[in-house]
Protein backbone atom coordinates (compact mmCIF):
# COMPACT_ATOMS: atom_id res chain seq x y z
CA UNK A 1 0.00 0.00 0.00
CA UNK A 2 2.86 2.36 0.79
CA UNK A 3 4.41 1.85 -2.66
CA UNK A 4 1.21 2.85 -4.42
CA UNK A 5 0.94 6.02 -2.35
CA UNK A 6 4.53 6.97 -3.19
CA UNK A 7 3.90 6.33 -6.90
CA UNK A 8 0.88 8.63 -6.86
CA UNK A 9 2.85 11.37 -5.12
CA UNK A 10 5.92 11.01 -7.37
CA UNK A 11 3.81 10.82 -10.54
CA UNK A 12 1.79 13.88 -9.54
CA UNK A 13 4.94 15.88 -8.81
CA UNK A 14 6.45 14.83 -12.15
CA UNK A 15 3.29 15.90 -14.00
CA UNK A 16 3.18 19.27 -12.25
CA UNK A 17 6.87 20.00 -12.92
CA UNK A 18 6.55 18.99 -16.59
CA UNK A 19 3.46 21.17 -16.95
CA UNK A 20 5.23 24.17 -15.44
CA UNK A 21 8.14 23.56 -17.82
CA UNK A 22 5.74 23.44 -20.75
CA UNK A 23 4.10 26.70 -19.71
CA UNK A 24 7.47 28.42 -19.37
CA UNK A 25 8.48 27.07 -22.74
CA UNK A 26 5.30 28.29 -24.39
CA UNK A 27 5.62 31.80 -23.02
CA UNK A 28 9.29 32.20 -23.90
CA UNK A 29 9.75 30.64 -27.35
CA UNK A 30 7.85 33.06 -29.60
CA UNK A 31 10.58 35.71 -29.97
CA UNK A 32 13.11 33.10 -31.09
CA UNK A 33 11.01 31.88 -34.03
CA UNK A 34 11.05 35.34 -35.60
CA UNK A 35 14.85 35.10 -35.83
CA UNK A 36 14.75 31.52 -37.09
CA UNK A 37 14.54 28.14 -35.48
CA UNK A 38 18.30 27.81 -35.04
CA UNK A 39 18.37 30.93 -32.83
CA UNK A 40 16.79 28.98 -29.94
CA UNK A 41 19.38 28.58 -27.13
CA UNK A 42 20.39 25.23 -25.68
CA UNK A 43 18.53 25.86 -22.41
CA UNK A 44 15.25 26.13 -24.32
CA UNK A 45 15.95 22.85 -26.12
CA UNK A 46 16.57 21.16 -22.77
CA UNK A 47 13.37 22.63 -21.32
CA UNK A 48 11.49 21.32 -24.35
CA UNK A 49 13.01 17.86 -23.91
CA UNK A 50 12.20 17.91 -20.18
CA UNK A 51 8.58 18.77 -20.87
CA UNK A 52 8.26 16.23 -23.69
CA UNK A 53 9.72 13.38 -21.66
CA UNK A 54 8.37 14.45 -18.26
CA UNK A 55 4.68 14.12 -19.03
CA UNK A 56 4.74 10.46 -20.18
CA UNK A 57 7.15 9.61 -17.39
CA UNK A 58 4.78 11.08 -14.80
CA UNK A 59 1.88 9.12 -16.30
CA UNK A 60 3.97 5.94 -16.28
CA UNK A 61 4.79 6.43 -12.61
CA UNK A 62 1.11 6.99 -11.86
CA UNK A 63 0.18 3.80 -13.73
CA UNK A 64 2.49 1.67 -11.56
CA UNK A 65 0.08 1.96 -8.62
CA UNK A 66 -1.52 -1.46 -9.17
Secondary structure layout plus pairing:
Layout: H1 2-28, H2 30-35, H3 42-63
Helix pairs in contact: 1-3
Mean pLDDT: 77
**Helix and strand element order:** HHH
Q: Low-confidence runs (pLDDT<50, min 5 residues)?
A: none
How would you classify the helix and strand content by structural class? mainly alpha
Radius of gyration based on Cα positions: 15 Å
Note the total helix count. 3
The strand count comes to 0
Give the proportion of residues in helices.
over 70%
Rounded to the nearest angstrom, the distance between the terminal CA atoms is 9 Å
Beta-sheet strand percentage? under 5%
> How many structural domains are formed by the residues?
1
Anisotropy-based shape: rod-shaped
Biggest sheet architecture: none
Q: What is the compact description of this entry?
A:
The protein is mostly helical and 66 residues long. It contains three helices and no strands.
Word description of this protein:
With 66 residues, the chain is an all-alpha fold. It has one domain (2-63). The protein has three helices and no strands. Helix 1 packs antiparallel against helix 3. The protein starts with a helix and ends with a helix.
Question: Which features does this protein show?
Answer:
66 residues, mainly alpha, 83% helix
